[in-house]
Design brief:
Blueprint (H helix, E strand, L loop, with lengths): L11 H9 L8 E5 L10 H5 L4 E6 L2 H9 L1 H5 L2 E5 L7 H7 L4 E8 L5 H7 L3 E9 L10 E2 L8 H4 L10 H11 L1 E6 L5 E6 L11 H4 L22 H5 L4 E4 L4 E4 L7
Parallel strand pairs: 1-2, 1-4, 2-3, 4-5
Antiparallel strand pairs: 5-8, 6-9, 7-8, 9-10
Length: 260
Amino acid sequence: MKLNLKLSLIGDDGIIQYLIHHVDISSQTFIEFGVENYEEANTRLLLLNNNWRGLIIDGSEHHINHVKRSDVYWRHDLTAVAQFIDKENINHIFKNNRFVGEVGLLSIDIDGNDYWVWQAIDVVNPTIVIVEYNSVLGDEHAVTIPYKADFYRTDAHYSNLYWGASLQALCMLAEEKGYYFVGCNSAGNNAYFIRKDKIGDLKPLTAKQGYVESKFRESRHENYCLSFISGKDRLKVIEDCEVYDVINHRIIKIKDLDKA
């Protein structure tokens, strides 16, 4: 069967299909936020191919209106909400749209407060959680941006490299919330977690074992033109930015992490 569709950005569909056939999914429902216009998304194949019910959220009303005008909206049981997400409102959004309790899959990608929002979620109990991690922050330190409700990546630093959390930080949070880390996609931007009571025969990994470095060259000059910086040189650009050390519960500049 040929599907003439845009689905996930970089091969995540295959990982997701593998996981839903290897873990016990008791609720064929999903939640994804940070979807833009939903033309490319982690959960789109679950909607179109597996006929799951879903909730998608994006901060742009323009993007959500695009979704509501598309065929996918009337053909499937999809709820689309235009709202800027923070840790204070996320549970209310879920409850207001009748998504509570067991959920098959939760996908978090907001290029900012991903760690803090996942930490705050307590009204749903997903089997699978996908969270975007910032590969630029490496695999050594458990850090995230300090919480700021209206965080916007481009305003935070001209380079667009200062956002989100390291994989180590997300793995620590996953442990606190009752999840195992099982790996990353090959692009080095999405991390996969399975609830411990659903792990089955999948093998849990440490952050170091599963870390994948991204090859994206999306950094910007101060005039916002692409600078095409790659590898560890990307971290130097944001070394004066502050991060929250989730182990020692302190704010510290990136360049001082190895000195502490």
